[in-house]
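ARCHIVE CARD
Drawer: 12
Card no.: 0347
Subject: one protein chain, sequence and derived structure
Cross-reference: see card 0346
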Amino acid sequence: MRAADLAGASESSTVTLPVSQRVPAGQTAEPLAAGTVARIFTCATVPPGADTIVMQEMVRADNAGATFSHVQAQGEWITQQGADIRRGSVILPASACGLRRRRWGSRHRWEALRLKSCAKCA
Protein backbone atom coordinates (compact mmCIF):
# COMPACT_ATOMS: atom_id res chain seq x y z
CA MET A 1 0.00 0.00 0.00
CA ARG A 2 0.96 3.64 -0.05
CA ALA A 3 1.47 5.27 3.33
CA ALA A 4 -0.08 8.50 2.03
CA ASP A 5 -3.40 6.67 1.52
CA LEU A 6 -3.70 6.25 5.30
CA ALA A 7 -3.35 9.93 6.16
CA GLY A 8 -5.70 10.70 9.03
CA ALA A 9 -6.55 7.09 9.88
CA SER A 10 -7.37 6.55 13.55
CA GLU A 11 -9.55 4.41 15.82
CA SER A 12 -12.34 6.98 15.50
CA SER A 13 -11.80 7.70 11.79
CA THR A 14 -10.89 4.51 9.93
CA VAL A 15 -9.84 4.35 6.29
CA THR A 16 -11.11 1.57 4.01
CA LEU A 17 -9.35 0.87 0.72
CA PRO A 18 -10.27 -1.69 -1.95
CA VAL A 19 -8.00 -4.69 -2.46
CA SER A 20 -6.77 -4.50 -6.06
CA GLN A 21 -4.70 -7.70 -6.18
CA ARG A 22 -3.53 -10.77 -4.27
CA VAL A 23 0.18 -11.60 -4.58
CA PRO A 24 1.38 -15.02 -3.39
CA ALA A 25 5.10 -15.81 -3.19
CA GLY A 26 6.59 -16.50 -6.59
CA GLN A 27 4.15 -14.36 -8.57
CA THR A 28 4.90 -10.95 -10.01
CA ALA A 29 2.82 -8.11 -8.64
CA GLU A 30 1.09 -5.60 -10.92
CA PRO A 31 1.71 -1.86 -10.31
CA LEU A 32 -0.39 -0.65 -7.38
CA ALA A 33 -3.08 1.89 -8.24
CA ALA A 34 -3.35 4.87 -5.90
CA GLY A 35 -6.05 4.45 -3.28
CA THR A 36 -5.92 0.64 -3.35
CA VAL A 37 -4.06 -2.05 -1.43
CA ALA A 38 -2.60 -5.41 -2.42
CA ARG A 39 -2.69 -8.48 -0.23
CA ILE A 40 0.81 -9.91 -0.37
CA PHE A 41 2.13 -13.02 1.30
CA THR A 42 5.48 -13.76 2.95
CA CYS A 43 8.34 -13.69 0.41
CA ALA A 44 6.11 -12.15 -2.27
CA THR A 45 7.30 -9.16 -4.26
CA VAL A 46 6.03 -5.74 -3.24
CA PRO A 47 3.95 -4.19 -6.03
CA PRO A 48 5.58 -1.28 -7.87
CA GLY A 49 4.20 1.91 -6.38
CA ALA A 50 3.71 0.47 -2.88
CA ASP A 51 5.89 1.95 -0.16
CA THR A 52 4.58 0.33 3.02
CA ILE A 53 3.46 -3.01 4.41
CA VAL A 54 0.81 -3.37 7.12
CA MET A 55 0.66 -6.73 8.88
CA GLN A 56 -2.68 -8.49 8.39
CA GLU A 57 -3.21 -8.57 12.18
CA MET A 58 -3.48 -4.76 12.05
CA VAL A 59 -6.14 -4.74 9.30
CA ARG A 60 -9.82 -5.59 9.26
CA ALA A 61 -10.68 -7.18 5.91
CA ASP A 62 -14.13 -7.83 4.46
CA ASN A 63 -15.94 -7.56 1.12
CA ALA A 64 -15.64 -3.77 1.21
CA GLY A 65 -11.83 -3.94 1.32
CA ALA A 66 -9.18 -3.45 3.98
CA THR A 67 -9.90 -1.12 6.89
CA PHE A 68 -7.11 0.64 8.75
CA SER A 69 -7.31 2.39 12.10
CA HIS A 70 -3.82 3.87 12.33
CA VAL A 71 -1.31 5.74 10.22
CA GLN A 72 1.56 3.61 8.96
CA ALA A 73 5.09 4.99 8.49
CA GLN A 74 6.37 5.02 4.92
CA GLY A 75 8.79 2.13 4.38
CA GLU A 76 7.45 0.09 7.29
CA TRP A 77 8.16 -3.64 6.87
CA ILE A 78 9.79 -3.14 3.46
CA THR A 79 13.13 -4.88 2.94
CA GLN A 80 15.08 -4.19 -0.22
CA GLN A 81 16.00 -7.24 -2.29
CA GLY A 82 19.43 -8.50 -1.26
CA ALA A 83 19.58 -6.37 1.91
CA ASP A 84 20.08 -9.52 4.00
CA ILE A 85 23.20 -10.59 2.07
CA ARG A 86 26.61 -8.94 2.28
CA ARG A 87 28.70 -8.51 -0.86
CA GLY A 88 31.13 -11.41 -1.17
CA SER A 89 29.31 -13.70 1.27
CA VAL A 90 28.47 -17.31 0.46
CA ILE A 91 24.76 -17.62 -0.24
CA LEU A 92 24.72 -21.27 -1.17
CA PRO A 93 27.74 -23.53 -0.63
CA ALA A 94 29.08 -25.47 -3.61
CA SER A 95 28.08 -28.73 -1.88
CA ALA A 96 24.40 -27.74 -2.28
CA CYS A 97 24.58 -27.74 -6.08
CA GLY A 98 22.41 -30.83 -6.52
CA LEU A 99 19.41 -29.50 -4.57
CA ARG A 100 16.14 -29.39 -6.46
CA ARG A 101 13.04 -27.22 -6.35
CA ARG A 102 10.99 -29.46 -4.05
CA ARG A 103 13.56 -28.95 -1.29
CA TRP A 104 13.59 -25.16 -1.61
CA GLY A 105 9.95 -24.18 -1.83
CA SER A 106 9.25 -20.93 -3.60
CA ARG A 107 10.00 -20.34 -7.27
CA HIS A 108 12.11 -17.30 -6.36
CA ARG A 109 14.55 -19.41 -4.36
CA TRP A 110 14.65 -22.10 -7.05
CA GLU A 111 15.56 -19.58 -9.74
CA ALA A 112 18.35 -18.19 -7.55
CA LEU A 113 19.66 -21.73 -7.01
CA ARG A 114 19.48 -22.57 -10.71
CA LEU A 115 21.30 -19.40 -11.71
CA LYS A 116 24.13 -20.09 -9.24
CA SER A 117 24.44 -23.83 -10.03
CA CYS A 118 27.55 -25.32 -11.53
CA ALA A 119 27.70 -26.21 -15.25
CA LYS A 120 27.16 -29.95 -14.70
CA CYS A 121 23.88 -29.37 -12.81
CA ALA A 122 22.43 -26.61 -14.99
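Annotation on reverse: The longest strand covers residues 19-23. The chain has a mean pLDDT of 82.
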